[in-house]
Amino acid sequence: MSARALTRHGWVVPLVLTALVGVVSLAVMGEYGQRQVMIIVVYTLIVSGLNLSFGYGGELALGQVAMFAAGAYVTGVLASHGQYELLIALVASVAAAGAVGLVSGVPGLRLGHWSLALTSFFLVLLIPDVLMLFEEETGGLQGLSGILDPTLFGITLAWSDFFVFALVLGFLWLMVVRNIVLSRHGHALRVLRESPSLAASLGLSAYRLRLRAYVLGSLPAGAAGCVFAYLTGFISPDAFTLNLAIALLAASIIGGVDSIYGAPVGAALLVLGPLQTSGAEKLSTLLYGVFLVVVGVLLSGGLASIGRTLLRRAGLDPATSHAVPAAEAGTFRVPGERVTVAGVRKAFDGVKALNGVDLRAEPGQVLAILGPNGAGKTTLLNAISGFVRPDEGQIRLGDRELRGLSPDRIARQGVSRTFQTPLIPRGMTAQEVVECGRLGRPGPRLPGVVLRSPKMRRTRAEDRRAAASALAFAGLAEVAGTDAQALPLGTRRLLEVVRAVVAQPGVILLDEPAAGLDDAGQEELARLVRRARDAGGTVIIVEHNVRFVLDLADRVVVMALGEVIAEGTPDEIRNDETVIATYLGSRSQAPAAAGARAEEDA
Amino acid sequence: MTVIWAGLAVGAVYALVAVAYNLVLTTSGVFNFAQPQFIMLGTFLAYEGLVAHDVPVVVVLAGALVLGGVLGFVEERLAIRPLPDAGGGHGALVTTVGASVVMLGAALVIWGTNARNVPPVLLDEGALTLLGGQVEKTDLLIIALAVVSAAVLHVAHRRSRFGLASRAAITDAAAARLRGIDAGRVQTLGFVLAGMFAMAVGVIVASKVTANVTLGNNLVILGFVAVAVGGFGSYAGALLGGMVTGLAEQLSLRYVGSEAPLLILFVLLLTVLMIKPTGLLGDREVRLL
Asked: What CATH superfamily is the domain A339-425+488-601?
């Protein structure tokens, strides 16, 4: 099998490794060794869930231990009531862990990172109290024993069967994570981690994405609890401490928070590593702490990033290995719609950033908004795309009212935008960056992604084809497979425009796209914008660069102090006296700007 | 009334934690997870000074101020300053948790897990009957300390040059820099001040909470509840939130049972986060990174 085929069928290597671990442990190791392997599986499940919510979702949760405890106790309580069926226990444990995740995640995620970290940390402190509250069922501080002899479909499992069950469970979960991470759901999470604003502008709701990643990440901890309960036969609050939470976090970080296979590596180090030797036990907390600071500061990718570098050296770059379909550029259409802005006002603490703005942009035209700093251009763009909520007025796309909707809903209505500094998520190829432009479109649901359903495959193929043809449309086909962050600024700007176009939006908003570009870069950009317009797109462009804009635009609106002071064709604007006085005329520009500031202060 | 006094006294401790959180929050936007560990170390400093070595109280307090300031400085320099600006607050999340675990681990190595009693500082032992309830003299001192420090910082944050500079720095660091405000220095000073304050608080509350290594982890949460209820970045809110938290804890302990307080506080926290995420007196300027 060739190296390329190996990376394409990413499940082969882990499957072989898992099988190898299974065979070796069963053949060579005694029960003690097998126990160690199963503890590694248990920690792998928990760490992998943590990676999903922290590494991919960007939200640090310290409460994985609480979900782990929930799973273990559900299994334990079922066993104490005579229910030893492993699959029932597994489903119930996972459900319990998910419920704990949902209850803590819904409020915890409302207020950004710290509040989730702390509410979930709180969960761990609550474990003993909750167990005491249900002392009759849980055995309180004494714990719960006799969780033995699980059955599968009614047949009691031998020790080696249970071992295989755990190993298979661990493998299946890693494949679930892999399928999610490599799908558009995974892309969405990476976009979110890079920038919540970018996620919103692509039609993704940050809150829902985070909640989904967090709840999803709590599920394997429940499964881990189920396995753990039958592995030890006895559970008590002593097993579910803050120290374990910290150790798991350390394992996650050393393995690499944003990696799939970093989890088993980190878990193995946790179980077999130097910290388990008896002398280090007293020092372990201190060492974990030092470790969190050092790795947190120095190395964000963990061991996985080192592994990836090695793979790339060996010519097995996982990022570029999927084939990019060849595409034809000619047929690309952008279904532009009319944008109507009427009487829009917005004040920030009394400063009128927008003071009754009216404008209209038509399909197949480029509308440019010019104006000095503080004129309200970017505020207007933000108002249309929902990042700023206007105090009054109307903003319509076609005949749909946009004012009052959240940015992600506005994006799904067909508003695409770029940002002043290109936002390109780390570690994505140009092709993938462009595919992200389609994340807001309806796609396969999570179960479909996990099982790689036909619908998921179809959507993925469509996304790839659309992205490839949009890249070809922009003349960027040859960079499709390169790491997008390594591209020069001009190309990244183009890439942002392509990402905005690929969603086939009703309107494309470009926020100072020419800033920092040299003449050649500006020309390429202008060519791409014209092509998007000729393909039927409605383009609104905010720009400082007067020459660039007057050459490109079909209509121009000039703003000053939150108001439209002139509107017309580029030629009309060039000769408009008010515009020359307030903005264009180089000699009068400075006093005008100073006067503007004085008025603002008053 | 005795239970009310007890609630106000523990509430004052939580309020002091919340004030220390705010000192860092309002100067750098970082939630310093390690802050309560300064209080924990302060209690052990009090034990070493007052019980083990018989050092005068004033010297112990001065030592706490110096050591707290140094540790705050070190934390900022090692765990916060080197982080890249990009990537939001994730880096600081991990590293302040790391700093917290380092301090906890060090205390474990030095003092082990046994709790130690520490005599009251500044006032002698003994209870008073006030407004129909029993209250320890030290508890009154702690309540007074919480009220005074919250009030002073509330005013200072609005009026003093440093307060204004810090508000400018976290609203827009670049703009502040253009006005000649060194956002980096403001941040360092915030960590140093918070460290000094928290460790001195540790010395003063040691007789009430005893010197023990688990103190930090409990205060992390309860101080957070105080800050979340009162409002992030608000000193008046810190006092209010701390008192609400302390009263809720003591009342539920007295009338519901020993398992109840944490659960009830958890529900309180979730309710506040759901209904009013900025807290009762939240400061809109402070955005959690």
From this structure: P-loop containing nucleotide triphosphate hydrolases (3.40.50.300)
